[in-house]
Design a protein that fits this description.
The complex is a heterodimer of chains A (about 190) and B (about 180).
Chain A lengths: L15 H4 L5 H14 L5 H11 L10 H8 L24 E5 L7 H10 L5 E5 H6 L20 E3 L6 H17 L4 H4 L5
Helix pairs in contact in A: 3-7
Chain B lengths: L8 E7 L2 E6 L4 H11 L4 E9 L39 E8 L7 E8 L5 E2 L8 H12 L3 E2 L36
Parallel strand pairs in B: 2-5, 6-7
Antiparallel strand pairs in B: 1-2, 3-4, 4-5
The chains are: A mainly alpha (about 190), B alpha/beta (about 180).
């Protein structure tokens, strides 16, 4: 730091070494590492997974009573807009997440398969409630016993209906899965047999 | 309510404040048109089909009582009761009619059917009968003649069987509970 040399402050930059000349390099290197993670300077896949998680738009697919709880997480009390998901898309071609909320009748199975096929990869499916997970209380001829007979499911949320916080827990676990690098269900195994 | 002039009338009963008239099946559309035009029953409220398979056999229909019903307020009326009187045929199709005028009289038109016996459509009399008759075909297997669109309403188009009949199984899957054995 000779007299004639320009200092970082002359360039308009703040440097900790200038402010704290007693700091060793290890401290600086450690803090540089923190700055890296705060700015998201990680590998490309991690960055992509992070961005997929932070704006995973659901499809407006409310079938029955669970749809009421799905609607209520958009309200201000439970507020799914905190996670960037308040934009429910009406078209499956624009949606990332299919939340099967409600019982699936035998007649509805074909349209569900069609809508799932119209979604673009990457896509995830949450089976919300007991009826979508296993047929629920309707163990009879008219209701499809679990939607994973026709489409692959990532997360099963139990409840009849699950509270909005319960669905939120399922959505957040899906976010954790995606950020950890777990592949979507369609890549893993397809539909249940 | 003087309903003696309804064409095809077989019998007229009055019970619990409700009037029920039984009509001959081939003349049903004529009787319904007569009720709508001459007696003013311009609203069809409901078409309800009932399956009486096993009626009166002990333990099959599950109803033990007299023709007047069980009296829950009279002690010791459970147990050995007379089994109910047998019904004329397996299926009964009930048309609930309402006249929209002060007093709002209601009447039930009933036809009795065997399995596979068709019933004429009343869509020409009340257009609202459309879906009720499709449901009667889908759920009970009562064929309707002259219906403009005789397809299944609730189940898939290629579904076999009629789910609400007494001999149709409940369906579903066997569920193994973790608390077993």
């Amino acid at each position: 730091m000779a007299v004639g040399k320009k200092r970082l402050a002359d360039y308009g930059l703040q440097s900790e070494r200038v402010l704290w000349p007693d700091k060793g390099p290890s401290e600086f290197e450690r803090e540089l590492g923190d700055i890296e993670s705060q700015l998201g300077l990680t590998t490309l896949e991690k960055a992509i997974a992070w961005s997929q998680t932070k704006s995973m738009w659901p499809d407006t697919f409310g079938l029955a009573c669970c749809a009421i709880e799905m609607m209520s997480i958009v309200s201000s009390r439970y507020d799914i807009a905190r996670f960037g998901m308040e934009a429910f898309r009406s078209s499956p071609r624009q949606a990332d997440l299919l939340i099967i909320s409600g019982r699936v009748a035998q007649k509805m199975a074909a349209p569900i398969k069609q809508i799932y096929d119209q979604m673009l990869e990457p896509k995830w499916v949450i089976a919300m409630g007991a009826c979508a997970s296993s047929g629920g209380m309707f163990n009879n001829y008219a209701i499809l016993q679990s939607v994973d007979k026709i489409i692959p499911v990532d997360i099963y949320v139990p409840g009849c209906p699950p509270r909005p916080e319960g669905l939120m827990e399922g959505i957040l676990r899906l976010h954790e899965r995606v950020q950890a690098g777990v592949p979507s269900a369609y890549e893993v195994g397809g539909v249940a047999k | 309510m003087p309903l003696a002039d309804v064409p095809g009338l077989v019998s007229e009963t009055e019970a619990f404040g409700e009037t029920t008239i039984v009509v001959d099946t081939p003349r049903l559309a004529e009787a319904c048109a007569f009720l709508r035009d001459d007696h003013g029953f311009d609203m069809l409220v409901d078409i309800a089909a009932t399956d009486y398979l096993g009626w009166g056999a002990p333990g099959v229909s599950g109803y033990i009582g007299t023709g007047a019903g069980r009296n829950l307020n009279r002690p010791m009326t459970q147990g050995l009761q007379a089994l109910p009187a047998p019904k004329p045929k397996r299926f009964s199709l009930n048309y609930h009619l309402l006249a929209i005028r002060p007093g709002a009289p209601r009447v039930r038109v009933q036809v009795w059917l065997d399995e596979g016996e068709p019933v004429p459509s009343v869509v020409s009399v009340w257009p609202g009968a459309d879906w009720f008759e499709r449901e009667a075909w889908d759920m009970m297997g009562i064929p309707v003649e002259g219906h403009p669109f005789p397809e299944r309403l609730i189940m898939d188009e290629d579904w076999e069987g009629h789910p609400l009949r007494k001999d149709y199984p409940l369906g579903g899957e066997p569920v193994r509970f973790s608390g077993e054995e």
